[in-house]
Amino acid sequence: SLGELVIPTPYKDIPLIGDKVTFENLSISFIVDEYLENYSELHNWMIGIGFPKNRTQFSTFRSSTSNTSSAGTGGNTDIGKVGNPTADRPFYSDATLTILSNKNNPIVEVRFADLFPVSLSGLDYNQQSTDVEYLTATVDFRYKLYEIVTI
User: Do 62 and 71 form a contact (C-beta atoms < 8 A)?
Assistant: First the structure.
């Protein structure tokens, strides 16, 4: 969405074009594999960002869990600055969503920049089902921006 500026007047408020774009969360539902590997990766990413037990979870995530090559090197002096893209890099990831044609050929890519998880649903276990039901989960991501590219 694009924000707007409203100028109040005695007669009618006048709307003007805004200058800040806000994107909705990227919400993805997925089937959880039998060893919970895909679910665990997202869970560990969120734990590493939020460190709910102690601060060592944060440092462990930066030094070993994060897949960013510069994580844990200690050479960056800007780590304490908020929003520093170099210092915060281990917390973000880029993602590409590929749209397929009716013949399963890639036709469009949606490329997300600086994506990070904000919500991960719980798993609903049910032993009462009479048919095979796969575990599914939903994850919500925030991101800086995205672009749509025709392949």
Answer: yes
Residues 6+ apart with CB under 8 A from 69: none
Tokens linked to 56: 């060592």
Closest residue by Cα to residue 139 from 61, 40, 42: 42
Element at 120 (helix H, strand E): strand 106-120
Element (H, E) at 4: strand 2-7
H, E, C per residue of the chain: CEEEEEECCCCCCEEEEEEEECCCCEEEEEECCCCCHHHHHHHHHHHHHHCCCCCHHHHHHHHHHCCCCCCCCCCCCCCCCCCCCCCCHHHCEEEEEEEECCCCCEEEEEEEEEEEEEEECCCCCCCCCCCCCCCEEEEEEECCEEEEEEC
90-115: average pLDDT = 95
Residue type, position 89, single letter? R
What distance in Å separates the CA atoms of residue 26 and residue 102, rounded to the nearest whole number? 23
Give 106-141 pLDDT, tens digit per residue: 999 999 999 999 999 999 988 888 888 899 999 999
